[in-house]
Amino acid sequence: EERIFKQLFEEALEIQKQRFLELRSYAKEKRAEQKKQYQDELQSMENYYKDQFAMLAEAVSEERRDIQTRERAHTQTLSKVKRELRSKLEKEIKELQDMITH
């Protein structure tokens, strides 16, 4: 009888030990899953902000190109107006000189 109780106790102890190992393994798996999920979320956030930064950098670059294009066009227009005004003034001066000399 004592041997039966001892054997039952040892079997119960073995079952408890096995259950403890299974629970520990399950907890380890869950921690690994949570860690992976956290890493995935973190990577997703990093990718999102990298994309947002790249889009912002592209928008700034495009705006800079547009400003440079407008500045060049403005400079060209200003130069053209100056040339035309100079030519007109030179023509008027020549006409006045011709009127004075004749």
What does this structure look like?
- This protein is mostly helical.
- Helix content is 98%, strand content 0%.
- The protein contains 1 helix and no strands.
- It has one helix at 2-101.
- The radius of gyration is 44 Å and the shape is rod-shaped.
- It starts with a helix and ends with a helix.
- The model has no long low-confidence stretch (mean pLDDT 97).
> What is the overall silhouette?
rod-shaped
Low-confidence stretches: none
| Number of helical regions | 1
Largest sheet: none
Q: Share of helix among residues?
A: over 70%
**What class do helices, strands and sheet pairing give?**
mainly alpha
Mean pLDDT: 97
Element-by-element helix/strand order:
H
Distance between the termini: 150 Å
Radius of gyration: 44 Å
* Strand residue percentage: under 5%
Number of DSSP strand runs: 0
InterPro entries: CEP95 (IPR026619)
GO cellular component, one term: centrosome
Question: Main traits of this protein?
Answer:
mainly alpha, CEP95, 102 residues
Topology overview:
Elements: H1 2-101
Task: Give a short overview.
By secondary structure, the protein is mainly alpha-helical. It has one helix and no strands. InterPro entries: CEP95 (IPR026619).
